[in-house]
Amino acid sequence: MSTANLLYTDTEDALRDTVRRLFADRCKFRAVVTLYDADADFTGVWKTLAVELGLAGLLVPESLGGAGASTREAAVVMEEIGRAVAPVPFLSSAVLATVALLKTGETQALRSLAGGSTTGALTIPLSKPPGAYAATVRVGASGLTGRVSSVADANTADVLVVPVVGPDGLELHTVARAAAGMKVTPALSLDMTRPIADVEFSAVASTRVDNGAAEDAVAEALLCGAVLLASEQVGVAQWCLETTLGYVKRRKQFGRAVGSFQALKHRLADLWLEVSSAGATARYAADTYARGDAETPIAAAVAQAYCSDVAVHAAEECIQQHGGIGMTWEYPAHLYLKRAKSDQLALGTAYHHRARLAELIDLPTSP
Amino acid sequence: MFSEPGAGSDLASLATRAVRDGDDWIVNGQKVWTSGAQNAQMAILVARTDPTVPKHAGLTYFLCDMTDPGVEVRPLRQITGEAEFNEVFLTDVRVPDANRLGAEGQGWHVALTTLNNERVAIGSGVPSAMIDKVVAAWRAQPELRNPAMLDELVRLWVESEATRLTGERLRQQLASGQPGPEGSAMKLALARLTQAISGLEMQLHGEGGLRYDDWTLRRPEIVDFIGRGPGYRYLRAKGNSIEGGTSEILRNVIAERVLGLPPEHRVDKDIAWKDLPR
Questions:
Q1: Segment B77-88, tens digit of pLDDT
Q2: Do B99 and B141 belong together in one domain?
Q3: Do B179 and B207 fall within a single domain?
Q4: How many CB atoms lie within 10 A of CB A91?
């Protein structure tokens, strides 16, 4: 545990600057908020991120067309996605779908995901925590049949990576979203910047890709997703804290800046410490995963148990300390509350992660 | 010798007087929360040398001979039964001017350096060590387990780990020459955690929590959080949010120095100390 590097390298800082500039330029609040009223299209931003900057393949080895980087770099991208509530399918495609394929040894679909020419989604409900997954899609003579609800970014994915119940246990298949018998129905999402969709399979032709490693592949994808989601939550929380600080220094009531009142100052001091500690747990999880450390499941559970609640706390304080303007559609705070609350439910709540942690650190439940 | 009965969080308002007498100073006053005074030959002392200027400007820093007949040390018993600290009564204590540290009126600046060292001295690993005690009891004594308590226990385990990692990152930042501002805040997290963990530990032990290990008036040199029982941990942890800067003062410090929020109104800052209401 003492070998973990909790800081950022110069390369990681440079990556952050690049991604932050891209989002500052092309994920402005005025544009992002239109996702809630219309079919706004951010494909161009994703293509820039995925192809031009080459970040879709961050977690993929260079031999398979990727950048050969690790969760340390991917975590930096996730922090910036959180800061901008950027509507890009990095988590669903470059993390969940990509890591699942990587673990199976599949290379064809993986290469095209890594290069950014296609986008993928792992067809699992976004709320599913790491751990054993009971698939709801079956494979028969006529192909795949079944339904999976609340899949993140399924509506814009080109290829779906589908956990399937096979005759001998879990299998992993790839399916073109546009294949015959597929029906993808977008849902109205609490967080429209990471939209969910319900996916139905009716005798859909598929390619089995798991090489017998489907369970490990799904588990690995969810674990990696949990590790990286913590960094997104840190990014959300940092934006909320910084924006709130800026506001309470400017906003005057009773003839003084509202940030001069201890009722707010003390809560902001506590929140700052929480956000700072969240950053340490997320960084630890990203570094631990990158080193292939056996402690990774514990580090991931700690980061999720801590960061998901901190992000929600920061977003809720952001709304409250802004007062009336925090409740308005035209102020960006609501995008962060919606992302923070959805992220809290994504890949398992803090309650799930604490329950898992109790098992991992040997705290038996029963008397 | 810093704190006084009338000067705690507002240390700069302290009233112990040092009056010049030839090559010496004559000191009169009362100090409190003085650690090690019962064994000390010398003590550091902040006293008021000029009551006619605002509070921060009239203080001077001295080294005081604790064997002077005017020094009376009494143990200050705490809610734990022990006495880590003392009250010190100073009656016409003679301090040579050669024992002055820094210039006359510069005592506040010298004292701040000492206080900053005190704040940094509290370790980020203490909550982890305390939660390990609770975890060990949970594992070893199945009869104590209550399913409703498990989530709270794991929550505190997670927070202890987060605090440990924050401390570890702080060390890495220092080592790489980019110190972070978290140092001022670690004590805040520590106090909240030691109190929450020890409070849960008492409830976990149930009947055992009704007992206490030792009420005798001991004079410990260090705080033995881990060697003592749950009742001691619970009571002693109450001091963590008071000693070395209360958590409320620390929140002000973080808000103002780290976050750049407006400072508290200081109605006394331009008034001569002797004219302050008290």
A1: 999 999 999 999
A2: no
A3: yes
A4: 27
Backbone angles phi, psi at B7, to 5 degrees: -140, 95
Give B191-229 pLDDT, tens digit per residue. Answer: 999 999 999 999 999 999 999 999 999 999 888 888 999
Q: Are residues B128 and B97 in the same domain?
A: no
User: What gap in Å lies between CA A99 and CA A95, rounded to an integer?
Assistant: 6
- The two tokens of residue B93 are 């204590």
A367 lies in a domain? no
* CB-CB contact of A39 with A17 (8 Å): no
| Digit-coded pLDDT (tens) for B91-124 | 999 999 999 999 999 999 988 877 765 554 456 6
Q: Does A366 touch chain B (CB under 8 A)?
A: yes
Up-side HSE of residue B184: CA atoms within 13 Å toward CB? 19
pTM for the full predicted model = 0.94
Output the six-digit token pair for A318: 């952001």
pLDDT number for residue B183: 74
Whether the per-residue pLDDT at A270 is higher than 90: the answer is: yes
Given an 8 Å threshold on Cβ–Cβ distance, is B145 in contact with A365? yes
Based on the domain organization, do A255 and A328 belong to the same domain?
yes
| Minimal C-alpha gap between A129 and chain B (Å) | 17
Q: Taking a C-beta distance cutoff of 8 angstroms, is the pair A66, A127 a contact? A: no
- How does A312-342 read in b/e, with b if 16+ C-beta sit within 10 Å? bbbbbbbbebbeeebeeeebbbbbbbbbbbb
Q: Which residues of A121-158 are buried (b: 16+ CB within 10 A; e: fewer)?
A: bbbbbbbbbbeebebbbebeeebbbbebbbbbbbbbbb
* CA nearest to A90, candidates A69, A74, A111: A74
| Domain harbouring A113, CATH code | 1.10.540.10
pLDDT at A367: 67
Nearest CA to A204 out of A164, A175, A168 is that of A175
| Structure confidence at residue A1 (pLDDT) | 45
Residue A193 forms part of a structural domain: yes
pLDDT of residue B120: 47
Helix (H) or strand (E) holding B175: helix B147-175
SS3 A4: coil
B258 to chain A: which residues are within 8 Å by CB?
269, 272
pLDDT for residue A154 is more than 80: yes
Choose, from B4, B72, B104, B118, the residue flagged as catalytic.
Answer: B118
Residue whose pair of structure tokens reads 């530990």 in the numeric block? B201
- Least reliable range by pLDDT among A247-256, A335-344, B176-185, B252-261: B176-185
* Shared domain check, A232 and A341: yes
CATH number of the domain to which A177 belongs: 2.40.110.10
- Annotation marks residue B143 as catalytic: no
Helix (H), strand (E) at residue B25: strand B24-35
ipTM above 0.90, yes or no: yes
- Write out the residue range of the structural domain in which residue A88 sits: 10-119
Q: Collapsing DSSP states into helix, strand and coil, what is residue B254?
A: helix
Among B152, B155, B157, B158, the strongest candidate for a mutation testing the A interface, having the largest count of A CBs within 10 A, is B158
Domain boundary among the residues A186, A212, A238 is at A212
Residues A18 and A97 in one domain: yes
Sign of CA dihedral B168, B172, B173, B179: positive
Domain encompassing residue B91: 11-103
- B126 or B75, greater pLDDT: B75
- Overall number of domains in chain A: 3
CATH of the domain at B159: 1.20.140
Does residue A366 carry a pLDDT above 80?
Answer: no
Is the same domain home to B236 and B178? yes
Mean pLDDT of B33-57: 95
